Protein: Luciferase-like monooxygenase
Organism: Fluviicola taffensis
Amino acid sequence: MKKITYSVLDLSMITKDGNAATAIERTVDLAQHAEKLGYERVWLAEHHNMEFIASSATSVLIGHVAAKTSKIRVGSGGIMLPNHAPLAIAEQFGTLETMYPNRIDLGLGRAPGTDQQTAAALRRGDLNTAYQFPNDVVALQKFFSEGNKTAAVRAFPAEGLDIPIWILGSSTDSAYLAAEMGLPYAFASHFAPKQFKIATQIYRNNFRPSPYLDKPYVLACVNGIAADTIEEAELLSMSLYKMFSGILTNARQPLSPPIPNLLKTWPQDLLDAVLPMTACSFIGDKDSLIEQFSDFADEHQVDEFMITGNIYDNEKRLKSYGILAEVFETINRS
């Protein structure tokens, strides 16, 4: 099996006993911990009008995390490009790359990262910007290129900087675009696993080599919860399942302590909604996770796993990421 890269996705979730400030502190703690453990990158995700997520100003938070770390790559998973002018994103990420050279990633998505009314507020009433996503990615690449020197509109300090651009997706549309543009592809299987297999097949089958990438590169974002025992990991995962139930029932809450046997109290229709949505969740002890990740990577030819671990207790969350690092190191040595 080829060596697997492993990384972190964090949304700066606000916990039941916390606030936005403590959520950001947890994000910094995790990034520093991941850096020591050998994780490749930590990405932050853009969301809006969500009371219990503190990553709405994603570029600002990326800069904060990069300043608190020294070598781990820091980036967006992602910037929802239809919410922004490409020029503004070029300027923001050019500034980040200037301050933290060779450490910044720019993952781009076309979803709003919010509800339609908030998307309209972000986009000043123009909800057609999502259809411009492919052209906006091209415009962003142009602002970063040396070839833009003769243009009337230029991005400083972005021009000439080599900032890796990724296409993010949760459906097959993004797979075609990433393949056509020859860019690395990150799939949100942590909440949209149903189309992961077909989307990555489309991406690989249609990939065109580019100046940015000579062969397909697939990153699978998954839920990962590890503990000393399978039973403890399953208990910790109840916070994750409660979070997803809040999303689906429109009864969002802060990340809450795990409730033993929570799933046994749910009606069947809620189980039928949540369990398929969380199918790409890797939960267990070290030995069971080695088997789970090895089998998945082998079946889907995953180049990189990005782990999001929504665990309420911060120390247990950090420990989980430590066990997961041991899992990937073991797999890579085999």
